[in-house]
Amino acid sequence: DTGVSQNPRHKITKRGQNVTFRCDPISEHNRLYWYRQTLGQGPEFLTYFQNEAQLEKSRLLSDRFSAERPKGSFSTLEIQRTEQGDSAMYLCASSPGGGVLYNEQFFGPGTRLTVL
Amino acid sequence: DQQVKQNSPSLSVQEGRISILNCDYTNSMFDYFLWYKKYPAEGPTFLISISSIKDKNEDGRFTVFLNKSAKHLSLHIVPSQPGDSAVYFCAASEYTNAGKSTFGDGTTLTVKP
User: Fold this and answer.
1) What is the pLDDT of residue A1?
2) Minimal Cα–Cα distance from A96 to chain B, Å?
């Protein structure tokens, strides 16, 4: 399977705990994106990377959230001191980037986080 | 402030008929628009896109129309098939920040056999 993969698919945690999600993009895709989606809403942009550089962070991404993309390959999204309001589907996507300004994004299946 | 709006949460059509999904935007800087389809338990998948230099783009049964003056776009599916039943998201990007897409809240399309 050469699509975008995300792990874990589901995560249940207690409030105050830290969680980390992993995203493996399609190989050779330069751009990687993180979104959050809650029930009845569309994906909300969190951040994106061009190779290993994090180019933009949404104001939704509080100090408790951090994302990395070491070596421009896979990416991790960490949430520290989770709150119930963090419960959502976290989607990762990738796109070729490169010399093309606009790309459609290829999404993974998401990680569903439930904070008790 | 929601910059991309899909005002119809749901739409139901008969198989073989046309489905029209609508999307409005407020940010005049948006110049590239995309439609994604999402099935349950899967991530969104790209369907069709349109640049602001065009007013129509067609791909098989799917056509997207863009009315820049009205800041409105629509997705037409003809003929509709039961397998088209899904949530459809409209998304928009702007030249100065092409890496970021802003999504609407989606329209759930149900195509009845």
Assistant:
1) 56
2) 11
Q: Which of B66, B83, B75 has the alpha carbon at shortest distance from B19?
A: B75
Distance from CA of B106 to the nearest CA of A (A): 6
Confidence at residue A56, expressed as pLDDT on a 0 to 100 scale: 86
pLDDT digits (tens, 9 = 90+) for B74-99: 999 999 999 999 999 999 998 766 67
Q: Are the C-beta atoms of residues A22 and A32 closer than 8 Å to each other?
A: no
What is the CB-side half-sphere exposure of residue A85 using CA atoms within 13 A? Answer: 5
Phi–psi pair at A85, nearest 5 degrees: -70, -10
Q: Which residues of A touch B (CB under 8 A)?
A: 4, 31, 33, 35, 40-45, 48, 50, 55-56, 91, 93, 97, 101-102, 104-110
Q: How far is B83 from chain A (nearest CA, A)?
A: 19
Q: Which residues contact B103 (CB under 8 A, 6 or more apart)?
A: A35, A42, A43, A44, A45, B4, B36, B89, B90, B91
- Give A-chain residues touching B106 at CB under 8 angstroms: 41-42
CA distances from A92 to A37, B63, B75 (A): 11, 27, 25
Hey, what amino acid is at B66? L
SS3 A71: helix
Structure tokens at A83: 């709150």
Query: What count of residues does chain B have?
Result: 113
How is residue A9 written in tokens? 């698919």
